[in-house]
Each structure stands twice: as C-alpha cells, then as structure tokens.
Write the structure tokens for this entry.
Amino acid sequence: QGRLVESGGGSVQSGGSLRLSCAASGITYTNRCAGWFHQAPGKERERVAYLDHYGTTVYADSVKGRFTISRDNAKNTLYLQMNSLKPEDTAIYYCAASRPFASCSASASWPYWGQGTQVTVSS
C-alpha cells in the first residue's frame, strides 16, 4: 500500500519561507500526478499545485510566482517551496498522488494522501 508522509510545516511571519516535503513509500511518483492541496479552517480543500505525468507544473492563481513544486525521483520525494508567505496561506497542507496515468483534474484520481502538515503565517 502506498503511503505519503509530509514534513516541513510550521509557523512563520508574513514574507517568510517554508519548504514542505512529502516522502512516498510503497509507490513511486513516476507516471503519476503529484500535488499539494490545502484546507483552511471553515473552507473546502483546494488544490495548490501539481506536477502531471510529463512533469508539467500547474499552480493555483493565488500562489503563482511565490510557490514552486518539484520532485526528486531518486529520493521518491515531492517538495513545495513556499516564498513570500501571506496570512491567507495559513492552512493544513496535504500532499497527494494519483493512480498511474490518471487524469490529474479528476478528484477520484487521487487515492493517496498524506496526513497533513500545518502552516501558519502571522502578520
């Protein structure tokens, strides 16, 4: 069974940076969509960024130019570098991986989820 474990969350001041990591075991990121989602209190979970099967990156408009998603296949780890953080970025961040060759845009394609890591940005 695939398992994803996030790390790297924490508390920072506005304008600060954090890097999230997501180590996979039991599955590899090869030929899968791999992405980051977040859920703020009282809000639905939203997609932040993902890599498709070809390595193409897609970002939510709210994080473009500030966040960078990347993947290290040798370490089987997904990353999210978050710069210029804002208070509205405060949320629990989850990494996820899709079934092989599944559509990245379909919610049912993402069966593998991490436990989540809290990111808190203070003003």
